[in-house]
Amino acid sequence: MKKLFYNIDTLATMDQDEQELKNAYILVEDNLIKEIGTGKPEITGSEACESYDMSGACCIPGMVNTHHHLYQSMFRNVKGAQNLKLFDWLTFLYERWKYIGAAEVYNAALVGIYEMMKTGVTTTSDMFYLYPKGTQRLFDEEVEAAVRTGVRFHPCRGSMSLSKKDGGLPPDSVVQSEEEIMADCERVVNKYHDPNPGAMLRIALAPCSPFSVTESLMRTTLDFAQKNDLLIHTHLAESPDEEAFCLERVGLRPVDYMDKLGWLNERAWFAHCVWLSEEDIEKFKRTKVGVAHCPASNMRLGSGTAPIVEMLEHPEIRLSLAVDGSASNDTGNMIGEARNALFLQRVSKGADSITPRQVLKMGTMGGAKVLGMDDYIGSLEEGKVADFVFFRLDTLEMAGGISDPISALVLCNPGTVYMSVINGRIRIKDYQVLENEMEQIIGEQNRMQKRILEREA
Ligand SMILES: [Zn+2]
Predict the structure, then answer these.
(1) What domain range includes position 391?
(2) Which among 173, 167, 163 has a CA at the least distance from the CA of 134?
(3) Most C-beta atoms within 10 A of its C-beta, which of 179, 256, 305, 318?
(4) 352 plus 227 within the same structural domain
(5) pTM above 0.85?
(6) What spacing in Å lies between the alpha carbon of 234 and ligand 1's midpoint?
């Protein structure tokens, strides 16, 4: 089946050539981009072709979110956690998060994913690390939700093994033993991981953070990932509290600790990376690690400004954008995150330190590189999978700003996507997510949140 999107006002390929085509078209056959050009092509052959006139819209590659905790879409704006910094915020929320079960994980994942799709995401990662005792197979719930939404998904089987009684931060009831964790990692990798090019679903492994897992689990995870050719992910250098914790517990700063564990390598990407020294950046450059920059979360929790401008000087470091969990962002607005990234850097580094196109590239090709999927997503090129989104330019919010439409996506307010295509399937049309039960999903989310927040912490 072919689909033709034509009369596109501006199409940014975001490939090596960084082309921006006017009056462009994009022809899709099954799940692949067959042809990109200008004008309107002659469609030959007897096969039917759906045509979409995209006048007044611009097209970019689908955005790639590299760090999230989808279950947290049920914990936005929780009173009592509105004004706390990372460790206090975590300690407060763990006592509420411990009540999640299968139904909550499934519903929250639908909400989190659809929200991101509306703001440009076609591929997302997730780090799901919370497995309250007595719950079964929660990871599978979010995979099922993601399959329902049609998003391209690269979740991490997260883990926590260091609870309060062992000097960690989470309560005992939400951590697992190393044996339980590794057995479930093996199970979900066998069940879901698709290493083939074009995959819709891949699995990575993610011990939650230096302050919630043991050194032994970090090493076992790395070993398992190497044997099974998987990516690894964790939070790193997010706050001064974390640095103090690492110095006290292992006598090393967070990046040096990762270095000691063998975690600085091309399989790894790290969320936040706010508190980096020049030596840390040098290590990142040498080891070609990936970074998930989460500006809204860093501002919300007062964590600080990640040295993105400094890292952009080293193309070896794979930089990407992420919304982080909705409990520390309160939205999951991906195109908004590009704007946050731009402005946060400019606060201390000046207006000429970073451009709208650079942050958009972090949010597309940068994410694809971090997730090891740049051979088939991240840019609009013939032969890649058909993952792209359209934003309208003929809206009130964009009026007077479209002399440079691509930069306007970051500097002006593009709103939500007008159309989203993922793996050749239309998932958003006329601004509407193609989901029949959206009202029920929203209602359930609010009912579930209320039930949990009313329980004793
Ligand atoms: Zn996070």
Answers:
(1) 2-61+380-431
(2) 173
(3) 318
(4) yes
(5) yes
(6) 8
